[in-house]
């Protein structure tokens, strides 16, 4: 299926209710499994969070997380410490191509019993749950922060806690800090100094109901819509000035791209500002790689030169996002260069109309390119992929007067 998208007036006004952060929700769901008895409000309605929740409740011997990378990493750690339970955890074809050896080796080094059902280093995994004692783990720092967070969240529930010694440059530091700050809400002692993270054992954590902040990654597409519009004023619920989410940096970035954002209570108000745009932007997105696609497409639509670095984890997401961006931007007439960790886009003055954008089973490809329809009509292939993180995305675009038709 394709969606044909355009916007006649290029003016967007409305109030949207984006649900809770997928990253926060999935961490809290895991902590809720360890610490029953607290409630989670404003949960993400994403497919990933629904899969995570269902897997934690499941009594099945085989658990399939489909494309949900966070669930694969977090659940691997969780099931490794359930004494006496044996499961196989698997996922989609793409999930079985995403490396997990570093996490498996780390867990096995503290006594876990995890083996590979097919290819060494990749899901599906056979996990024979055991009581783990925890202790010291040394691992590279430039891996997915989800591996590190999965290990951190074991810390309070294994006898010796967890001490991580990270080697090399730390990637996605904001997501690691999010995990530690969430643990601290439950009275769990943590320490992050230099290259070492320590989480202490705690056999009586506090039980405090949690309200999840809405998802800044999802909000990034609305920032892009405002930037690419002629005139816009959009209100988003429920956001906080002091966020745990690294992607909240989007406010600062899009201020340069003509988007004013400010808080009114828990509402985030976005407004188009017709200020002078920069000729070029440069950002290191090591701590927020998920917004790279959004920023790149916005810059293409605005005719701004763009250089983004710190993107080395993008090759191992739902697709190779750097290759996917390169391919689809080329279709549209862009001059773009990618390496294994960076992207360079030169400024442009024209676009190829009515392109059909492939989404590569990646929700962020669909949502990053859709705002470009404010500039040129285009179509999005396999639009249902947005359910992975933002199921209401197309409904929200219709509310903002986008003309969307199935084909």
Sequence-ordered SSE layout with sheet pairings:
Layout: E1 2-6, E2 11-17, H1 22-34, E3 40-41, H2 47-57, E4 62-64, H3 69-80, E5 86-90, H4 101-109, E6 113-116, E7 125-128, E8 135-140, H5 145-152, E9 162-167, H6 173-185, E10 190-193, E11 196-199, E12 210-211, H7 216-228, E13 231-237, H8 250-255, E14 259-264, E15 267-272, E16 280-284, H9 292-302, E17 305-309, H10 321-331, E18 336-338, E19 342-345, E20 355-357, H11 363-369, E21 378-381, H12 393-399, E22 403-406
Parallel strand pairs: 2-13, 3-12, 4-5, 8-9, 16-17, 20-21
Antiparallel strand pairs: 1-21, 1-22, 5-7, 6-7, 9-11, 10-11, 13-15, 14-15, 17-19, 18-19
Helix pairs in contact: 1-2, 1-3, 1-6, 2-3, 3-5, 4-5, 5-6, 7-9, 9-11
Commentary on this structure:
With 407 residues, this protein is an alpha/beta fold. The chain has twelve helices and 22 strands. The protein folds into two domains: 2-20 and 213-406, UDP-n-acetylglucosamine1-carboxyvinyl-transferase, Chain (Alpha-beta prism), CATH 3.65.10; 22-211, UDP-n-acetylglucosamine1-carboxyvinyl-transferase, Chain, CATH 3.65.10. Strands 20-21-1-22 form a four-stranded mixed β-sheet, covered by helices on one side. Strand 20, helix 11 and strand 21 form a beta-alpha-beta unit. Helix 7 (216-228) runs parallel beside helix 9. The longest helix is centred in the N-terminal third of the chain and has 13 residues, at 22-34.
